[in-house]
Amino acid sequence: MSKPLIPAQRREKIQEYLAVYQIARTADLCELLDTSEATVRRDLEWLEQKGFLERTHGGAILSQRMTFEQEYQQRAQQHPEEKRLIGELAASLIEPGDIVFINSGTTATQVLLHIRKNSNITVFTNNVSAVMELGEPGFHYFLTGGEFQARSNSLAGRFALDNLSLVYANKTILGVDGISIKHGCTVPSNAEAEVVRRMIERTKGSIIIAADHSKWGVVSNFQIATLDEIDKLVSDDRLGASALDALEEHSVECLIASSAPVPA
Predict the structure, then answer these.
(1) 72-257 maps to which CATH number?
(2) Measuring CA to CA, which of 20, 97, 117, 142 is 20 to 30 A from 168?
């Protein structure tokens, strides 16, 4: 009979497991550590307090910190097909007559690129990258104004905030850098967070997050919304079952963009 692991050894093994798999079920950890569910729950609680993980219903996910803002072109090269599909699905939620806020970022740019042309839709955005890619947009399109943010190709600051305060939207579609059960939706820049929070404040309808699976469990520097403050998440088919369960618990509707053909 093997000698029981001491708490430090159990917690180290849990960390090693999550570093590989990002997600762990309590039942799997009980088997791995050869210990009780109550002991595993205590270890998970201890590790959560240290900021290593976030507990979920039936397990835990790795808590990944993103402490700096990547250049726009770097982000554009990450999961491009997923972002394209997410952008297409999120854009399909916009209906004729809608006034929509859309923020900066590579996924938000894909939303803007997939809005129906020649449609009675009005968009307010701080996304400069989309301006360069859209050409003639085919819908009503307003830039917020503000100070140019070179790293994110976006606009922010007092002009942007003041102009957004003149408008009410009935939908907001947002790209984010992290989604976490405990910390909600986060972005790395305070300037972007201020703009996004103002967009949310001025929205009299749905708050929609457009983010690929890699954003789940990531925590960036500035919170823009808790999970309870968002209505829908548009993501890809690599978003895990534990994430879907957690989002359902917070009444977030999940829409999955997939490249798989629809059965006839």
Answers:
(1) 3.40.50.10470
(2) 117
